[in-house]
Amino acid sequence: MVQHVVPVILSGGSGSRLWPVSRKSYPKQFWPLLNEKTLIQETALRGQGAGFSDPIIICNSEHRFIVAEQLRDAGIQKSRIVLEPVGRNSAPAIAAAAFMVAEQDPEAILWIMAADAAITDEGALRGALVKAIDAAESGRIVTFGMTPTRPETGYGYIEVGAELKTVRGVYDVSRFVEKPDAEKALTLCSSEKYLWNSGMFVVKARVFLQETERYEPRIYEAVGQAVRSRHTDMDFERLEEKSFAAAPDISVDYAIAERTELAAVVPGSFGWSDIGSWDALWDLSIKDADGNAAIGDVFLDGAKNCYVRSDGIVATVTGVENLIVVVTPDAVMVSHRDRAQDIKHMVSRLTQAGRKEATSHNRCYRPWGFYESLIQADRFQVKRIVVESGAKLSLQKHFHRAEHWVVVGGTALVTRDDDLVLVRENESVYLPLGCVHRLENPGKIPLTLIEVQSGPYLGEDDIVRIEDVYARS
């Protein structure tokens, strides 16, 4: 197997079908849904375990510090995190990675995968990957087709053609089939000609760019310019915004895979799932004798074939079957398992109603740690703030609120106008309206404090950053 294979991880989705756990502010790839590792950590380690080059991760600017921290926590010290200034779907994102890899080696092979898929049989994956790389070496654009185990309506399908003469076990793609309705899915699933489309690709950087230029010249020009004009932002590579925004918003399937004459497929059965719904997660989870998957503080009585998860208060489920129940600190979702794919419609309704729960969690992650609201009222708000060891918030001020900080764990170093104040556990500090202030954690353990805000307006946009080590505006 050639060694210059570059894993390219796409981390741009919001995973709305796994609401309320997965939301735009903290989507499913950052959650440990199957074990102690998050999905993006498992994906990155998969490439590292195969002995390939350091991964390239394409993500949006809002998630850059989350991605960096989760990769560090997984022991991945070297990676290239590329920031999309605006979302433009998978085709422009992959093109950006291809341009960047081609700067050093146009013949390098990209192993393109989403950050939020699960694979349970790594050995079978490696066997399929060997075949895919061999076919990619000969100039093909190779995807992986999964043997269907059920009539799934949430996946696209691939019709398998003739076996390649050059590589055994790799086949031409006759056509791609859109996500079907239930009746058509049953027909496709019962035929040996059709496979689930995994969305993973293996292709030379040069070949991908060649086909992009042929079928989507606007993407080729816009993304090429965005890559050439990119700049470094701390440990990140930020694509130039104006050029990248000019690229069409289109998936790699529509842009390239369904149009190219080079498409090939490796059939496989290695426990792949895009975890695109709670029902899919139930299928992958460990279940009790009654077919229930229970995660968190959950009690069941007479329930069968249910998925029940609580990340907050105790959840009890009695005498029901085939339900999905998910509890978070600020939302509860109940659905029949057969309607799991429709949860995204409820997210759309919440968005139209202006509910922040549609896109944001109560806990908001920042490069220095996180905060969460405990009490919200008309003219005051109470938050818990956790700052990691050695981290600091921006030097800032507010026009509409005063703040009172009470340290309940660790030690805080507080800038208050011209003063530096060391605040220890069970001590407090008051920050009047308009005061220029900063919070730092000089200690070796996380700093936890309770913040009481008071004033006529308490929105997060009432922050004037004067200086910020994280280069936020």
UniProtKB/TrEMBL annotation:
EC number assigned by the record: 2.7.7.13
Catalytic activity annotation: alpha-D-mannose 1-phosphate + GTP + H(+) = GDP-alpha-D-mannose + diphosphate
Mannose-6-phosphate isomerase type II C-terminal domain boundaries: 354-468
Domain MannoseP isomerase/GMP-like beta-helix: residue ranges: 303-350
Keyword list, A-Z: GTP-binding, Isomerase, Nucleotide-binding, Nucleotidyltransferase, Transferase
Domain Nucleotidyl transferase residue range list: 7-289
Enzyme class: transferase
Signal peptide location: none
Molecular function, one GO term: isomerase activity
InterPro entries: GMPP_N, Man1P_GuaTrfase/Man6P_Isoase, Man6P_isomerase-2_C, ManC/GMP-like_b-helix, Mannose-6P_isomerase_type2, NTP_transferase_dom, Nucleotide-diphossugar_trans, RmlC-like_jellyroll
Assigned protein family: Belongs to the mannose-6-phosphate isomerase type 2 family.
Name recorded for this polypeptide: mannose-1-phosphate guanylyltransferase
